[in-house]
Amino acid sequence: MCELLMRMTLDSICKVGFGVEIGTLSPNLPDNRFAKAFDAANIIVTLRFIDPLWKIKKFLGVGSEAVLDQSIKIIDDFTYSVIHRRKKEIEETQEIPNNGKIKHDILSRFIELGKDPENNINDKSLRDVVLNFVIAGRDTTATTLSWAIYMIMTHDHVAEKLYEELKSFEKDRAEEENVCLKPCETQDPESFDQRTKQFAELMSYDTLGKLYYLHAVITETLRLYPAVPQDPKGILNDDILPDGTKVKAGGMVTYVPYSMGRMEYNWGPDANEFKPERWLKDGLFQNASPFKFTAFQAGPRICLGKDSAYLQMKMALAILCRFFKFELVEGHAVEYRMMTILSMKNGLKIKVSTRS
Ligand code: HEM
After folding, report:
1. What does UniProt give as the signal peptide span (predicted)?
2. In the chain, which end has fewer C-beta atoms inside a 10 angstrom radius, N or C?
3. What percent of the chain has pLDDT over 70?
């Protein structure tokens, strides 16, 4: 399941961020060299923190450092091909007179800014923009979706409550749009497919905002399994923190969303329990201060993609939890893989059944 979700979020960030369809989630699941190289580079760079010999290996070009060099080459090739494709498409559309098409993706906006030499944007800085958005937007949402599905399938009452919310959302939306819901025969793939498509079409940015329980399920997942479990900061100058702690230039300060999300001091005696209800008051979602719920960081450098991440995760989970039931494969151990992102070491092996 984790790999499929990673493919989905990679396709999605490439489409929304860079305006290109890369189709890694197409039915034949094509070999995904970029994703493999990206994962390998992520692991190797993180392991440098605990491998005192990494500089020597890098100098000699051996072991994991040799793999890193190959991975970087694959990542660069992919990234530059995305940039060149987008640039070419922009040029071609601009050749059509009075075309007036506005490019909404992030990469196009940076390419546009690059036309002014004062902005000093070249292909290398565009590559960094692309990679930054892949790093920020792929693993974070994919891993949160994996933990959310794990939480939903191990808490039956949550799965049922969510299903009820999605069923009544579907009914209400069909009434609002004045359309009849198509039949949903779980044994007939064609009919089942048609109904899932119809459900997807009934979703919109505004209407997804009404799915309070789903919003609470995702937020509760991020409280217990924040995609960025710890977030270290380098100290530039000697300073004194608000509580009086003195910190020295060259040192590090880390805030730890994983621990903060589980502190009884913050969340009460049931802090370790998965309870989406804690986010609801009279059925409406109640947000917490970002300084208490720190999964997206707080202050001026808070995550820029928070709303887009919720939107994507809500769309994916709404379809999955409305039409499918999940069960953990017997004996499969769900364990942490502690990298920059809190992912699952052995993936998430599940049995899936359909719901009418
Ligand atoms: C569950 C999903 C996500 C989580 C938990 C998350 C979490 C975070 C966190 C903790 C930071 C602060 C990192 C730091 O200290 O420097 C951050 C920054 C950022 N995130 Fe997200 N993120 C998510 C999804 C996304 C998505 C989908 C995008 C883009 C489409 C995105 C774009 C960004 C950007 C651009 C920054 C840098 C903001 C800045 O430094 O000013 N994030 N995110």
Report:
1. none
2. C
3. 97
* Among 48, 29, 41, residue whose Cα is nearest residue 78: 41
303 annotated to bind ligand: yes
Q: What is the ipTM of this complex?
A: 0.98
**CA 22-2-148 angle, 5° bins:** 115
User: By mean pLDDT, which of 14-18, 191-195, 297-301 is the weakest?
Assistant: 14-18
Hey, what are 141's tokens? Answer: 């949402």
Residue with more model confidence, 136 or 224:
224
Three-class secondary structure of residue 6 per DSSP: helix
- β-partners of residue 328 are 350
- pLDDT at residue 96, rounded to an integer: 59
End-to-end CA distance of the chain: 22
Map out the domains of the chain as residue ranges: 1-137, 146-356
Nearest-angstrom CA–CA distance, 216 and 277:
7
Q: Which atom of ligand 1 is nearest to the CA of 257?
A: 10
Calculate how far, in angstroms, residue 105's C-alpha sits from the geometric centre of ligand 1. Answer: 17
Write the single-letter amino acid at 340. Answer: T
Q: Whose CA is nearest to atom 31 of ligand 1?
A: 305
Cα–Cα distances (Å) from 287 to 3, 69, 84, 218, 294, in that order, read 31, 44, 41, 12, 12
In the CATH hierarchy, which top-level class contains the domain 146-356? mainly alpha
Q: How confident is the model at residue 191 (pLDDT cuts 50, 70, 90)?
A: very high
Q: What is the DSSP string of 23-79?
A: -TTSTT----HHHHHHHHHHHHHHHTTT-TTHHHHHHHT-HHHHHHHHHHHHHHHHH
What is the rounded distance in angstroms from the CA atom of residue 276 to the CA atom of residue 241?
A: 33
Pocket of ligand 1 (CB under 6 A): 133, 136-137, 140-141, 144, 227-228, 231, 295-297, 301, 303-305, 308-309
Structure tokens at 234: 């380098």
Q: Which atom of ligand 1 sits closest to the CA of residue 132?
A: 35
pLDDT in tens, 251-304: 999 999 999 999 999 999 999 999 999 999 999 999 999 999 999 999 999 999
